[in-house]
Amino acid sequence: MVEAFLRRGWAHFDHTPEVAAWAATARAAALVEIADPVCQAEWLQCGGTWFVGVDTLPNSVDGSVGGSGPLAGPGYDQAVDIYGGLPLHRGQVSVMYPGYPKPREGEGEGAFGFRLRRDAAHVDGLLAVGPARQRMLKERHAYILGLPLTQASAEASPLVVWEGSHEIMRAAFARALRDMPPQSWSEVDLTEIYTHTRAQVFENCRRVELPAKPGEATLLHRLAVHGVAPWGAAATAPPEGRMIAYFRPELPDHDDGWLTLP
Predict the structure, then answer these.
(1) Collapsing DSSP states into helix, strand and coil, what is residue 20?
(2) What CA–CA distance (Å, rounded) separates 125 from 181?
(3) Around Cβ 236, how many Cβ atoms within 10 Å?
């Protein structure tokens, strides 16, 4: 399983009772936060079709939330086996609603078209900085673990990944950063090589949709190009939408682990 994950850049883990129990408890805690007007004002985007939900889940560093035990299960266990038991941040609760996507505030026609046609494909941690929106490495994640919190059909804006894209991106970033000490990587403008290499990924990598249900888990490589598909015409979900909790524990920013770890 580890070998397949490292080759493809993603892995899906089947339903287990312990993950389903955690998801049920996390869902209840997340719904309280999502209903908060302050959270809605900050995170409800794309014309009300996407609740971004960064740091919304009120979990502890071991993943426990709302009286649940620590986060466990085969997906999380595999991440720990590969990358170690890094402390968990407050999880992102990403919620998609019928009609996604609508244009995000400030999003031009080109950016919205990319969201619509290319699932807003990106590599996590490369943030758009300044008026020129230069892509810079501001967050060095170890991995991305997705844990669905609601039952939704496969067409309800599933997670999307470009299989094998992590190694293409790794090679490109390694060339761009080879003459810079790791401590300075966050100040390097990666926009051009990021955009160029992502286009290569679209041409050469298989696009894979990864729908999942509570009790299951999805593990993505930190360098994998991924996004979210538009809401399908026949998609179904509960009133609270298609909800997934994501954990992206961070690596130290003083070494080269972001590029050299598996």
Answers:
(1) helix
(2) 18
(3) 13
Q: Mean pLDDT of all residues in the chain?
A: 97
Assign 187 a pLDDT band (cuts: 50, 70, 90).
Answer: very high
CA distance 61 to 70: 9
251: left (phi over 0), alpha (psi -120 to 50) or beta: beta
pLDDT tens digit sequence for 25-77 = 999 999 999 999 999 999 999 999 999 999 999 999 999 999 899 999 999 99
- CA torsion sign for 14, 15, 16, 20 is positive
Q: Across the strands, what pairs with 220?
A: 10, 144
CA distances from 232 to 53, 150, 237, 240 (A): 22, 17, 11, 17
Can you give the pLDDT at residue 239? 97
Per DSSP, the three-state class of 112 is: helix
Other CB atoms within 10 Å distance of the CB of residue 34? 20
CA distance 166 to 249: 18
pLDDT 10s digits, 134-174: 999 999 999 999 999 999 999 999 999 999 999 999 999 99
C-alpha 117, offset from chain centre:
18
Residue 216: both structure tokens together = 């299951």
Which of 260, 246, 252, 262 has its CA nearest to residue 76?
246
Contact assessment for residue 10 and residue 51, using Cβ atoms and an 8 Å cutoff: no
Whether 116 shows a pLDDT value over 90: the answer reads yes
Length of the chain: 262
